[in-house]
Amino acid sequence: METRLLSASEYDIALAGKIIADGGLVAFPTETVYGLGANAFDEAAVKKIYAAKGRPSDNPLIVHIAEKDDIIPLVKQVTPKAQALIDAFFPAPLTIILPKSEKIGNAVSGGLDTVAVRMPQNGTARALIKASGVPIAAPSANTSGAPSPTKAKRVIEDMDGKIDAVICGEDCDFGVESTVVSLAGEIPVILRPGAVTKEMLEAVIGRVEVAPSVLEGMAENEIAPSPGMKYKHYSPKAEIILVNAPKKRYEKFVNSRKNAFALCFEGDCVDIPKVTYGKENDDLSQAREIFDALRVLDDLGAKKVYARVPRKSGVGMAVYNRLIRAAAFRVIDLEQPFLLGLTGQTGAGKGFVGEYLKSLGFNVLDTDVYARRVCKKNSPILSVLAAEFGKDIIVNGELDRALLAKRAFLNKQNTERLNSIMHPAIIALCKKEAVFPAVLDAPLLFECGANELCFKTIAVLAPEKTRVERIMRRDGITAQQALLRMSAQKNEEFYKSNSDFTVINDGRDIKNQINNILEEIL
Ligand code: TXA
Ligand code: MG
């Protein structure tokens, strides 16, 4: 079929109206996204929409009307709450669901006994409905599962050759589809968030709920309140992963990713290839741009994309709802307690790994520093140590470290007693102060049980020769002294069997090894 490209002129709109009245399909602009319309009263025409989109037949369509009263014949009854919303908002990016009248066929309602109705704001859309003389059933004009089109050229990409005509109008103002609110039950429920927010609805009709599936994935056996929710949605070809993090942390995180794209806000300092979707504190700009940004990522051949999470309230809820689906619900939450345990053999290069993780935005918690801090002047732990190792280890409220070390390292038993006092205190301080994501740098990570706090653990190992040389250089001691120190430590096997990952410092690129580990766990 040849798809005619029409303008939004009066003449072309009249022509498009006739195509619809005659049972054809026309894509047209609305203020939300482009719609793919057919005569809502013509079952055969409506079925063609499903075919053109490749849309599952149980996913109902929205019926678009030109005047407020045009809803009356489509529904059983315009309830008081429905009327209040119509009076307050129509024409608007708002769709109302009510029990359907017998005029609505099963193709439109996907077999449900309700119907979704919307009166668009966009002048071209309303002129088209008027010109056709019938209500227009229209889903978004994309191939099922792809991001909705907000520009005529995106409609053409998906629909050329499959439909009768496209009215090539302006880019869409809002950019995400209408808010869908069901008034079919006792309490109004938002099934899909959009530019008309929960707060705006509640100001008119009181309590409104948000379907849980708006912000979360649905369980496999859950019945979708809106059939559209259960299908894969808004998915570009690229793999999208949401990153929940404030600006700086997102930037650091994303700049360490390889072979990936960033989907971020204007002004984010990102060094890897990026596509932006609006401004950080401007939900409306994000909504306007998000769908096209997803399509641009595909144009650029992006395979993996780290997207910055929008806020979840106001119109941001609509943006988040689309993005989380585009990401198939994959989120890396850098705000959650995320603690990586880092340990390893002395001289293996643990410090270097810590520095690298720090440069990637991790907050590195050095247990040596914490050990000193828990023993600072007059801290309560000092009296516990004094009771164990002698009152004279405290002088004027300060710990005599050298004396404590002498006594504690006298034998294994004493060392263990010292550890059993110190380790819980160090861990408690780490827990209290850690800003996530963090790395817990601890030579005795496994020995003191701090690995239990960690999401994953990494051990840094190196061949004996390398370690001896490094320790000699670092601490200015002889090879023999270095070997003695090393022999006091656990062997390689211990670290390998206890840690989730090992980094081997034997000439291979350490940063690369770390990147691969992060790739796997994030
Ligand atoms: O902004 C919009 O609403 C755009 C423009 C073209 O108007 N249209 C649009 O339609 O987004 P569509 O088909 O892509 O999305 C309609 C959503 C689907 O998730 C569908 O499952 C849901 O509304 N829906 C339609 N009728 C329903 C009903 N009776 N009960 C529950 N959900 C319904
Ligand atoms: Mg759609």
| Number of helical regions | 19
Number of E-type strands: 23
User: How would you write the strand order of the largest sheet?
Assistant: 1-8-2-3-7-4-6-5-9-10-11
Q: What small-molecule ligands were found?
A: threonylcarbamoyladenylate, magnesium ion
Helix-strand category: alpha/beta
Overall pLDDT, averaged? 93
Instruction: Profile the largest sheet.
Output: 11 strands, mixed
Instruction: Give the amount of beta strand, in percent.
Output: 15-25%
> How big is the Rg?
31 Å
Distance between the termini: 47 Å
Shape: elongated
Helical coverage, percent range: 25-40%
**Which consecutive residue ranges, at least 5 long each, have pLDDT under 50?**
none
Describe the structure in your own words.
It is a single chain. By secondary structure, the chain is of the alpha/beta class. It is built from 19 helices and 23 strands. The strands form four sheets. An eleven-stranded mixed beta sheet has the order 1-8-2-3-7-4-6-5-9-10-11, sandwiched between helices. Strands 14-13-15-12-16 form a five-stranded parallel beta sheet, sandwiched between helices. A hairpin with a 6-residue loop joins β2 and β3. α1 packs across α5 and α16 crosses α17. The longest helix has 22 residues. The radius of gyration is 31 Å and the shape is elongated. The two termini are 47 Å apart. The structure holds threonylcarbamoyladenylate (TXA) and magnesium ion. Magnesium ion (MG) binds next to loops.
